[in-house]
Amino acid sequence: MCSGYSVAQKSSIPVVCAVIEDGSGRVLIAQRLAHKHLGLKWEFPGGKVEPGEAPEAALIREIKEELGCDIVVIRALHRSIHDYSTVAIEMLPYVCRLASASAAPHPHEHVAVRWVTPAELAVLDLAPADLPVVASYR
């Protein structure tokens, strides 16, 4: 019996990302390593959600690993799915801020990090999965 779904359909991988606000209207973006998929594109930092892990916990863990800082999750933005043809990801974005006693963000797993205004996001070479995050944030 046909279920209505194609056997070839791929499931999406849950990926969290942080739109970290600095309190002055800017947000943090990070530049991907050159040798990685989408090398040198800018993105909101984050990463994969491990099995059994809550998205917010995954985000706090990923930001600590990638940027060496601590965040407070403020609110979720709209989820989106992006198909990179080799993999589909379900982007789970959250607006965050640095925790009061946090170190400054440092690019442990990126080429660079940068604070930008929401208007500057429109002219940066962002990873495609981050474009709906920008639209949701605005």
Structural class: alpha+beta
How many domains would you count in the coordinates?
A: 1
Specify Rg, calculated over alpha carbons: 15 Å
The third-level CATH topology is Nucleoside Triphosphate Pyrophosphohydrolase
Which CATH architecture?
Alpha-Beta Complex
Measured by DSSP, the beta-strand proportion falls in 25-35%
Can you tell me about this structure?
It is a single chain. This protein is an alpha+beta fold and 138 residues long. The protein contains 3 helices and 8 strands, in the order ββββαββββαα. It has one domain (12-137): Nucleoside Triphosphate Pyrophosphohydrolase (Alpha-Beta Complex), CATH 3.90.79. The strands form 2 sheets. Strands 1, 4, 5, 6 and 7 form a 5-stranded mixed beta sheet that branches. β6 (80-83) and β7 (88-98) form a beta hairpin. The protein is globular, with a radius of gyration of 15 Å.
Question: What is the structure about, briefly put?
Answer:
The chain is an alpha+beta fold and 138 residues long. The protein is built from three helices and eight strands.
Which key features would you list for this structure?
single chain, 138 residues, alpha+beta, globular
Helices and strands in order:
Elements lengths: L11 E10 L5 E5 L10 E2 L2 E3 L6 H13 L3 E6 L3 E4 L4 E11 L13 E5 L1 H4 L9 H7 L1
Parallel strand pairs: 1-7
Antiparallel strand pairs: 1-4, 2-3, 2-8, 5-7, 6-7
